[in-house]
Amino acid sequence: MTGTAPSRAKPRIIMVSGKGGVGKTTVAAATAVALAARGCKTIVMSFDLAHSLADSFNMSDELFSTARGQAVKVRDNLDFQEIDVQEEMQRNWGDVYKYIAYLLMGGGLDGIVAEEAAIMPGMEDIIALLHINQYAREGTYDVIVVDCPPTSESLRFVSIIGSIDWYVRKRLKIDRRVASVLRPIAKKFGGESMMLPEDGYFAALQSLFEKLEGVETMLHDPTITSLRLVTVPDQMVVRETQRAYMYFNLYGIAIDTVVVNRMLPKGDGYFSHWVERQTAMIETVHSYFDPVPIAIIPFQRSEVVGVERLEEFGIQLYGDADPAEVRVSTAPFGFAKISDNEHRLSVQLRFAPKDKVEISRDNEDLFIRIGTFKRVILLPRALVAMQTSGAKMNGDALEITFRKDAHS
Known about the structure:
By secondary structure, the chain is an alpha/beta fold. 41% of the residues lie in helices and 23% in strands. It contains 13 helices and 15 strands. Strands 3-4-2-5-1-6-7-8 form an eight-stranded mixed sheet, sandwiched between helices. Strands 9-10-15-14 form a four-stranded antiparallel sheet. A three-stranded antiparallel sheet has the order 11-12-13. A hairpin with a 2-residue loop joins strand 9 and strand 10. Helix 1 (24-37) packs across helix 12, helix 4 (94-106) packs across helix 5 (111-117) and helix 7 (151-188) runs antiparallel to helix 8.
């Protein structure tokens, strides 16, 4: 199907995530192909270090990509991009990259090893966010499809903005001032071993953080950004999908589709028992995730590689529907004013055990922790002077109440 892309003030952002090996790259690539066929200028990008987008499109016989992190044209209206962290670091993070490598060499690592080790976890997430924000500001694409890494790394991707915001608010200015005071003292006494960063390091950090301004607002707007969870009808994988659903909601990401991939066809052969188990699991998936739309994709007769096969897969996935359609428009996270003296924060946390939810607060920072994941929420100014007066689970929602002190 071909058509004309709708006009958008901001690009539509569709993230695809799930447990490794369930077919999320295929879903992401097929989504991008289907969008391009409708006339939407689309890019599908991957920041998973184990890139496989190029393999999915079958663009080259080369074992490793030669694009060096740049966008590559697949066909009209369709590009793909595999983030090259080392290239990006050297291109845009010069002072930061050099300082981290310098620290590691000071710790005894060989220069080449230190350069490799300077690529710290989370940098690929920040680089991907920088690209998304740049494309959004420049209006380069109508739709950005993000082929996310496996679930835990995807959660780091959506949570890292909060960590950056906390550092900018709490530490950046202090660290910069301390370093400016200690540098001349260290040099006077020959204290090179202190390895204090030059001011260019902090200036580079400040510049990078400024380039991320606005991206969190886009990610938390369900009319712009949504996430599609890919799973298979196996108990262990569905359990992980439940946890992923809960954690993505915690970080404010709206999930608008659950894709159940590799459903075996009915028959009396060797796999008949598997078919029975999968059929029962589909019923379970509906009971868990309804009313979120659920797409059931059959086990494919052949490998889904190349644009033609991706087109066929996209038809099975979307039919005549628009892949860019906003299917869930309600944010999983939001503040509401109950009265002049009372406000409420509501966070959708389906599947969250009540006894595993921990809440704490430090002035304007509210902390919500579930299991091994924690979100830091910067409270609006109107709520900072209020007391946290209570929290409860109301159905699938965690509700936290803030009230003015009666004596204030």
